[in-house]
C-alpha cells in the first residue's frame, strides 16, 4: 500500500508548485550572476538592439533614395523610347496608306510591321 501512496504524493507535490513565467525564470537566473556580468550582458544586448535598429533605418533610407533616384532618372528614357517607337509606327502607317502595303514592308528591314488600325 505504501507503493500506491508514493506516486500520489509525488503528483500532489508537482501540482502544488506554481507555474513560472519566462520572465520569472530570467529574473531568477540573473540573481545567480555577479553584478559586472549582468551589466556587461545588458550593455551588449542594448548595443545589439541599437545597432540592428540603426542598420534597418539606414537600409530603409538607402533603398528609398536608390529607387526614387532610379525612377526619376530612367522614367524619361523609357518615355522617350516609347514615343520614338510610336512615331516610327505612325510613319510606317502613313507610308502604307499613301503608297500601299508593299512600300511600307520594303522600307522596314527589321521585319514585318504589326497590324494596327489606320490612323485618320
Automatic annotation (TrEMBL):
Lineage: Eukaryota, Metazoa, Ecdysozoa, Arthropoda, Hexapoda
Family affiliation: Belongs to the Tom22 family.
BP GO terms, sorted: intracellular protein transport
InterPro entries: Tom22 (IPR005683)
Keyword line: Membrane, Mitochondrion, Mitochondrion outer membrane, Protein transport, Receptor, Translocation, Transmembrane, Transmembrane helix, Transport
PANTHER family: MITOCHONDRIAL IMPORT RECEPTOR SUBUNIT TOM22, MITOCHONDRIAL IMPORT RECEPTOR SUBUNIT TOM22 HOMOLOG
Entry membrane topology: Single-pass membrane protein
Superkingdom of source: Eukaryota
Main localization (coarse): mitochondrion
Species for this entry: Drosophila pseudoobscura pseudoobscura
Compositionally biased intervals (Pro residues): 111-120
Region of interest: Disordered: 1-23, 92-120
Signal peptide annotation: none
GO annotation, cellular component aspect: mitochondrial outer membrane
S-adenosyl-L-methionine among keywords: no
Protein name in the entry: Mitochondrial import receptor subunit TOM22 homolog
A Pfam family reported for this protein in Swiss-Prot or TrEMBL: Tom22
Transmembrane segments: 62-79
Amino acid at each position: 500500500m505504501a507503493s500506491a501512496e508514493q506516486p500520489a504524493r509525488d503528483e500532489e507535490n508537482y501540482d502544488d508548485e506554481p507555474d513560472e513565467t519566462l520572465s520569472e525564470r530570467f529574473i531568477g537566473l540573473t540573481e545567480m550572476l555577479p553584478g559586472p556580468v549582468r551589466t556587461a550582458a545588458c550593455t551588449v544586448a542594448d548595443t545589439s538592439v541599437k545597432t540592428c535598429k540603426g542598420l534597418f533605418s539606414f537600409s530603409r533610407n538607402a533603398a528609398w533614395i536608390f529607387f526614387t533616384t532610379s525612377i526619376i532618372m530612367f522614367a524619361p528614357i523609357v518615355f522617350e523610347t516609347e514615343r520614338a517607337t510610336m512615331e516610327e509606327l505612325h510613319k510606317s502607317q502613313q507610308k502604307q496608306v499613301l503608297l500601299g502595303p508593299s512600300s511600307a514592308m520594303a522600307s522596314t528591314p527589321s521585319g514585318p510591321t504589326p497590324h494596327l488600325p489606320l490612323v485618320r
